[in-house]
């Protein structure tokens, strides 16, 4: 995928997340929100935002796939709120235990 197109989709994804004004959204809501971008392209953008940029987290809860902004991006959203005067809800990011803690608790 072209770098420029990937960046365009990433901007769409971040804009959609901020527009929803929730701590997390269902991934299927993002996929259903546009017919402009293929689902595979959105997945590539999500992977880039999660792994390279560290701006969001994908997780599954009770069989549903969710997307959440990281505290870094949430803080940027809050600071931009003051200048753009948009209302963003509080971002509550679920914290995961480090793998080392999970692994050691299984061994005990």
List the helices and strands and how they pair.
Blueprint: H1 3-20, E1 24-26, H2 27-32, H3 39-51, E2 56-61, E3 64-69, H4 71-84, H5 99-107
Helix pairs in contact: 1-3
User: What's the helical proportion of residues?
Assistant: 55-70%
| Backbone shape | globular
C-alpha end-to-end distance:
46 Å
The overall strand count is: 3
Q: SSE string, helix = H, strand = E?
A: HEHHEEHH
Features:
3 strands; alpha+beta; 3-stranded antiparallel β-sheet; single chain
Describe this structure in words.
The chain is of the alpha+beta class and 108 residues long. It is 56% helix and 14% strand. The protein contains five helices and three strands, in the order αβααββαα. The chain has a three-stranded antiparallel β-sheet with strand order 1-3-2. A hairpin with a 2-residue loop joins strand 2 and strand 3. Helix 1 packs across helix 3. The protein is globular and about 35 Å long. It starts with a helix and ends with a helix. About 19% of the residues have low confidence.
